[in-house]
Design goal:
This protein is an alpha+beta fold and about 240 residues long. It is built from five helices and ten strands. The protein is about 20% helix and about 40% strand. The termini are far apart.
Length: about 240
Amino acid sequence: MSQWKRIVKKERKKHSKIQNQKEGIKLNPLIKSSLLASSALFLTVGFQLNPVQANEDDTNVSSEQTGLESNDLLSTVDFDNLKIVEEDGSESFFESKEDMQLYITYSNLPTATQDVGLKSITAAGAIGETVVGTEYKKMKFLAYSKYTPSWAKASSYTLSQGKSDTFSTTIATKFGDVGASFTKNYGTTTTIPANKKKYSRIAGYADLKIQKIKVSLPNVSSTFYKNKVTKQAKYVKPKYK
């Protein structure tokens, strides 16, 4: 059984207990039915969440068995780190697995209901998000390039076409620790100038916008929070010592 199928099976069992996981949660019959329909959809499409890819058009996954259409609002789900990479490239971090599971469930509510007799419901209308705090990190160091493992007095660095670098780190913010990462693909051979009088290594930096967001769901009395990290700019350049 694949990892996703195990998650879906576990998720489906928890649908009936969601209100016990979150204090004060009460679902009306419409939302409860929508959650069950959503669970059926997960099983039909195999909980398919497409990895983020540049210049790739978003596509919906259809289910012939239920007549439902999935909202692909999520791109990559990382349960180990309680992280979701949204389709816009931003990263959302959750305080608990229960909060994350609720967010995923409501993000995948069906938009078409030809065969199950439910009213049409969209993920955009299902999830309410209110920004309660914002913090900016300018030119934040993320990591060194794997191609410069040691310090050197170099006048320039040349990175060949076809190579790629991933820069990733954990950052302390006033909302708690969050992760930030990006991958740089070198489509052409790239030369990065450096000051040969100083020791340097190639490194990745980013301008970050960190938001604390209150998440509310329809007919759910309690709320939860997530931290959203948006990369406003990315840089690959020498770091000196």
